[in-house]
Amino acid sequence: MYLADVFNINKQFTFYGVYHRNPINVAIHMICVPMILWTGLVMGTNLPSTMFPPIHVVFNDYLAFDLNWASVVAGSFLFYYYTLEPLAALMYTPEMALITLTALKFAHRPDHMAVAGALHAFAWIAQFVGHGFAEKRAPALMDNILGAAVLAPFFVHLELLYKLGYRPELHKRIDNEINKEVTRIRKMEGDKKRATAAGRQN
């Protein structure tokens, strides 16, 4: 992947969309992707953060902020989303803030690792089931760790925005690119199967 492609929403969303076309699989991801992000941030608070100043702010019983690797990663994700699609990123900012602040507060519970670990594993398993039984294609994680791990929360957000009528011209353009890519992949897979069958006959 070229560096320019990393900041190209058309290419990134097209790649993601190829692996997320089945409505059941899309619905699973809309539930599980935010769960994976939230639990990942909870578990990320356990990483050593001695290099950061001890900033700790409690807003209420459910929201808190700590300057650590989890909050830095969340901020980095959001910054990246702004480079891709600023308006959509702006609309996603409250959700990211809520996910981050609740995760940082939850991380102060003594059982946070056990709860987050169990939910994290469940969400990943559910997504693999969605890909295997609904999508019938391997998840994008196998081909593009950036699209699967970093961009998934934003793409789930964009999927919801598209359903609400956000930038129909962008949605149509990317959907056309997804259809072209699916056709190309299916042709490659068909050619490979025919070549394998011909080899066996020979």
From TrEMBL:
Keywords: Membrane, Transmembrane, Transmembrane helix
Gene Ontology cellular component list: endoplasmic reticulum; membrane
UniProt cross-references to Pfam families, sorted A to Z: Mpo1-like
Transmembrane parts of this sequence: 26-47, 59-81, 114-133, 145-164
Stored InterPro entries: Mpo1-like (IPR009305)
4Fe-4S listed as a keyword: no
GO BP terms: sphingoid catabolic process
Domain of life: Eukaryota
Protein name as catalogued: DUF962-domain-containing protein
